[in-house]
Amino acid sequence: MEPDLVASVQESDITLLKSSEDIMEVAISVVLPRLLPLQIEIMVSGLINANPIVDIKDPEHPYSLEELKVISEDAIEVDNERSYVRVTFTPTVEHCSMATVIGLCLRVKLMRSLPSHYKMDIRVAPGTHATEAAVNKQLNDKERVAAALENPNLLDMVDECLAPSYA
Amino acid sequence: MAKLVIEGWIEVSLVYVVIGFFPLFLSRNFRVLFLIFLMRLESHLSSKAFIGFHYNLPPVLALALSSFWMEFLDANLELKEIQKLQGHTDRVWSIAWNPATAAADVPTVLASCSGDKTVRIWEQSPSTRSWDCKAVLEETHTRTVRSCAWSPSGKLLATASFDATTAIWENVGADFECVSTLEGHENEVKCVSWNASGSLLATCGRDKTVWIWEVMPGNEFECIQVLQGHTQDVKMVRWHPTMDILFSCSYDNTVKVWWSEDDDGDWSCVQTLGESSGHSSTVWSLDFNAKGDNLVTCSDDLTLKIWEADITRMQSGDGYAPWNHLCTLSGYHDRTIFSVHWSREGIIASGAADDAVRLFVQSKDGPMNEPSYRLLLKKEKAHDMDINSVQWCPGEKRILASASDDGTIKVWELATLC
């Protein structure tokens, strides 16, 4: 089954995806300390939630980070000299479209947070998903990502996922 | 007797060594001719099988010296930035030089299309020799304009957009007017290409199809066929420079060749370049050499592949001549190669996601029957972000234009330092 970035998403899926917001916060909290340029830290610190990384458990969200096990510290590779970031995530959801959308949210968050000259690769952790090659290929095809983000429905959903829901 | 021979040999050698320095004073074209002359002379002398090696050694020395100078002088080539064209407010996806403005004194015109939904026309001013934005084609496409192509006559410009339409623009006085809109694709149209005579137009898109349109009088376009065959998103289409053969590159890692035997016949896929010795990831672009017998493809798998075919056989009407893989250029790129363009002189330019422009030429070394290519020049940080398109100017000068995600277009000149 070929996951399509522009596939329509159910309302119930959005609740599930909101928990992926934790991934965003952790991704940024973990990526940031490794990004030595101070300017980046200052710029992005405004987006960071004050909660410590270890025990993020928000009553609004049904899942905690440990339970989700979607992203961990060694899943983020940063190379400052080459301005390169590589994020590997483990989708715990079976549905291909969900994995693609989570990857897309990760990509959008990074695109909005990092300076424009940074190159990024978003990958599904090897061996965790049946169609990981197909998902990886689509996530790293910038033309497909650009076209998908022009779809207002998809863009709204991504924005909702990335919008901070707790102070 | 031996002393006389040796003295004579030294004199002759000295003469040839002096001759070996000639390339330093010659212009580029004459250097090549001179080298050919020396090679002919050397082979003539060695074939005569005179008394000893000393008859052919001096010319060989001259040849070695001349080759050394040529390599040295070639190494002093650089890609000099002439101008940076700014104006687009989003990434620039594609650029196209107007082929009709290739004549010596006619100022060149460049079209660029962008994610900001507009197309800009840049014209070179005859007095300042710099490019200024002559027109902005807006309010027609409602989404990113992905590709643009001038008709061979230079009078029409076709633009392909993510809004699933292809617009045809005509230069009316100082402005451009949209004279036709081609609809039919189910979703994003990714590329548009005119055939050599300007009688046919091809478009391709994410709906996995390639559409062939016939250009009729009065700016009317009629779809003559919808080609199915690709199993994924079709990224680019291009017509062969001399024959009506269509090539399409796709996300399914293949390049398909479409041909129609008779003029009114059906178009079908006569070859798929990809099963063996093909690319292992999305093929983004392709281009032909000046003669049309060689093809270069670039891909997400970080390689460039050169293919060849017996074009003369096809031109004489002997049926379809298949394309064969000639060589693969790997290890030069470390991120996706988005664009490749072959100049009339034979220099292949590549634009990649690592912000660099690379130039390749056919290598003079290597066995005679196996052509190989070498990296002539790498321009690192040519842009601040990914390079989406590189296009050689169709004129005499070695001018190259590159378009990038940073919203700018840069015009470069390949020049020697000395």
Overview of this structure, please?
- The complex is a heterodimer of chains A (167) and B (418).
- By secondary structure, chain A is mainly alpha-helical.
- Chain A has helices at 11-18, 21-34, 38-45, 65-68, 96-113, 132-139, 142-149, 152-162; strands spanning 76-79, 84-89, 119-124.
- Chain B has a four-stranded antiparallel beta sheet.
- The two termini of chain B are 47 Å apart.
- In chain B, helix 1 (2-20) packs parallel to helix 3 (57-75) and helix 2 (28-47) packs antiparallel against helix 3.
- By secondary structure, chain B is an alpha+beta fold.
- In chain B, a hairpin with a 4-residue loop joins strand 11 (200-205) and strand 12.
- The model of chain B has no long low-confidence stretch (mean pLDDT 89).
- The interface between A and B is medium-sized, with 11 and 24 residues.
- Chain A: It comes from Hibiscus sabdariffa (roselle).
- Chain A: Belongs to the MIP18 family.
- Chain A: InterPro entries: FSCA_dom_sf, MIP18.
Average per-residue pLDDT of chain A, rounded, comes to 64
Rg over CA atoms of chain B: 24 Å
In what order do the strands lie side by side in the largest sheet of chain A? 1-2-3
Oligomer: heterodimer
Task: Provide keyphrases for this structure.
heterodimer, A: 167 residues, mainly alpha, three-stranded mixed sheet, 8 helices, 3 strands, globular, B: 418 residues, alpha+beta, four-stranded antiparallel sheet, 4 helices, 28 strands, 15% helix, 43% strand, FSCA_dom_sf (chain A), MIP18 family-like domain-containing protein (chain A), MIP18 (chain A), WD40_repeat_CS (chain B), repeat (chain B)
Map the helices and strands.
The complex is a heterodimer of chains A (167) and B (418).
Chain A: H1 11-18, H2 21-34, H3 38-45, H4 65-68, E1 76-79, E2 84-89, H5 96-113, E3 119-124, H6 132-139, H7 142-149, H8 152-162
Parallel strand pairs in A: 2-3
Antiparallel strand pairs in A: 1-2
Chain B: H1 2-20, H2 28-47, H3 57-75, E1 77-85, E2 92-97, E3 109-114, E4 119-124, E5 131-137, E6 145-150, E7 156-161, E8 165-172, E9 175-183, E10 189-194, E11 200-205, E12 210-216, E13 220-227, E14 234-239, E15 246-250, E16 255-259, E17 268-273, E18 283-288, E19 294-299, E20 304-308, H4 311-315, E21 324-329, E22 337-342, E23 348-352, E24 357-362, E25 373-379, E26 387-392, E27 399-404, E28 409-416
Antiparallel strand pairs in B: 1-28, 2-3, 3-4, 4-5, 6-7, 7-8, 8-9, 10-11, 11-12, 12-13, 14-15, 15-16, 16-17, 18-19, 19-20, 20-21, 22-23, 23-24, 24-25, 26-27, 27-28
Helix pairs in contact in B: 1-3, 2-3
Protein name (chain A): MIP18 family-like domain-containing protein
InterPro entries (chain A): FSCA_dom_sf (IPR034904), MIP18 (IPR039796)
Organism (chain A): Hibiscus sabdariffa
